[in-house]
Structure prediction request, 241 residues.
Amino acid sequence: MTAAVRLRNERLYFGALAVFLALLMFAGFARSFYLHTLFGQPAPRLFLQIHGALMTGWLALLLVQTGLVFARRTQWHKTLGYWGIAYAALILPIGAMATLGLARREVVAHSAHALSQLNVLGLELMQLSLFALLIGTAFVLRARTDIHKRLMIIATLCILPNAIVRLSIISGLDFLGTNLAILTVWVLVVVALVGSDVWRNRRLHPAFGWSAALAILALYAAWYASRTALWDHYWIKTLSS
Prediction:
C-alpha cells in the first residue's frame, strides 16, 4: 500500500468516526430535540434549546473539519480550528449550567430522582472537565496530527454519554436503568472505536490509549464519588440555598 493510499484511508476512517458521532447525537436526541414535533413531544425549554444547538454545532464543526482535511484544505482547517477553541470554551459554562439546573430542579422539588440526578451531576461535570483537558491538549499538539485527531475524537465522546442515556430510555431495556449501566455502555463504545483503530494499524496508538484510559477511569471514579453521602450533602445544601 502506497503512502498516498494510506493517507486517504486514514482520512476516510476519521471522517467515518465523525459521522458516527454525529449520528449517535442525532439518534439520541431525535425524539426530544431534533424531531420532537414528529414524535408529539413538547419543545425543550429555551435554555435547553440553546444548549442543544450548541452541542449540535460542535458535531457539525467536527464534520466540517474532517471534510476540510479530506479535501486537503489544511489551511482552512487550521484557521477554523482557532475558532473551534473559542467554541469549545463556550460549551463548558453552558453545559455546566444545564446540568446544575437539572440537579437544582430535582433537589428543590425533593424528587425521588434527586440523588440519581446528583450522581449524573458528578458524571457530567467530569465529562466537561475531560472535554476541556483533551481539547486543550489537542490544540497544543495540533502539529502532531496523529495525536490531535485522536484526542478530538475522545474529547467529543466525553460529551456524548447523554445521547446513550436517551437511547437507553427509548429501548426500554431494564438493565440500562442505572447510571452505571449506561456508563458501561459508553465505555464499550469507546473501546470499540479505539479497537477499530488498533485493528487497522495492528497497534494501539498511544494517544488513543492514554486518553481513552483516562476518560474511562475518571468517569468511573466520578460515578463512585458522586454516590457518597459527602457529595450528596454538599450539593443538596448548595443547590437548596
